[in-house]
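Format notes (please read before filing issues)

Several people have asked whether sequences and structure tokens are stored in separate files. They are not. Every record keeps both together, in the order shown below: the sequence lines, then the token lines. Line labels are part of the format and must not be stripped during preprocessing.
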Amino acid sequence: MLSQVSVYTENKKGAMLEITRIMQQEEINILGSVNNDSAEYGIVRMVVSHPQKAVQALREKGYMCKLTDVLGIEIQDRVGELNRLLAALHDSNINVDYMYLSFNRESGSPVMVFHTSDITEVEECLTAKGFCGLKSLREQ
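Then the structure lines:
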């Protein structure tokens, strides 16, 4: 299980630049992210090298943010692997709320980061089906 930082921000020019500037100043590496927007506001979801430190730094700059548990499942870098993962989830009647791509810095393999309603149960299910869940996306 991984900790994800979710940041709520205005949908305006330079918003993401400011978030990445804060991460740079705090020497926090963004290891994977996805941005979702609406007309006025957006959500930036990130797996970072130091999630607690990131939340503290962002809150100090006035951002509303929170930590959320997500799964990071390592897959092989070959055709059909994402389909295999999604089929395993579907066969177990598991709905994925959202997902995005990162990679394991040690093995170089892709990692699908995703959120579901019951993270612990889903992780156990996928482990039983031969998938490898990650506890962190370590930097080299």
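For reference, the curators noted about this record: Helices lie at 15-25, 51-60, 81-91, 119-128. The CA atoms of residues 87 and 135 lie 23 Å apart.
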